Amino acid sequence: MKKPSLIDYLYASMFTALVAVSGYISIPVPFSPVPITAQSMAVMLTGCILNVRQSIMSMVTFLLLGTIGIPVFAGGRSGIGVLAGPTGGYLIGFLVAAIIISLLKGSANKIIRLGMANILGSIIIYIIGTSWLMFVTGTGLYEAIAIGVLPYIPGDLLKCFAATLVGYTVNNQLAYSNMNE
């Protein structure tokens, strides 16, 4: 495996910043410890636009920054306590989702493929996040789904749609600019 290039580092850092900044777009939900944020859309964009290596680098950097105390998690939170708390599974889900989306998109820029990858990425975030939410809070499956999944589905479908369109457009522009160099 070849070592990361400067481009890998630049793209990974840009998308780390995008995910971090999108956490400040945060709406607390009174009935759930999980806020509504733009971070899941930024994670989808990471997977849609970056290759697998860059996606891993970006999401691992994001998680490490938050863990060591840089306020990159939703609402400017940080620390190992956030990862160990009710929302920690969703954050770990971001890493897995970005990798899966990046793998599934492949090298072909097909809008349906990107859309399906984003939907699967959201499902992965829900599965990992809800499992951790159940573990940390001691809630049952149905309650965890009620507070950690159901209220977010409509917004996440919109985020999937938007990330798919943006990812598709950016990938087309990158492919076009690479052809004309």
Question: Overview of this structure, please?
Answer:
The protein has one domain (6-175): Arp2/3 complex 21 kDa subunit ARPC3 (Orthogonal Bundle), CATH 1.10.1760. The chain has a two-stranded antiparallel ribbon. The chain has eight helices and two strands; from the N terminus they run αββααααααα. The protein is 71% helix and 2% strand. The chain is mainly α.
Class inferred from helices and paired strands = mainly alpha
SSE string: HEEHHHHHHH
| Number of distinct beta strands | 2
Helix amount: over 70%
Question: Mind summarizing the main beta sheet?
Answer: 2 strands, antiparallel
CATH topology: Arp2/3 complex 21 kDa subunit ARPC3
What oligomerization state is this entry in? single chain
Through-space gap between termini: 26 Å
CATH class: Mainly Alpha
The assigned CATH architecture is Orthogonal Bundle
Strand order of the largest sheet: 1-2
Calculate Rg over CA atoms: 16 Å
Helices, by number, come to 8
State which percent range the strand residues make up: under 5%
User: What is the 3D form?
Assistant: globular
**Poorly predicted parts:** none
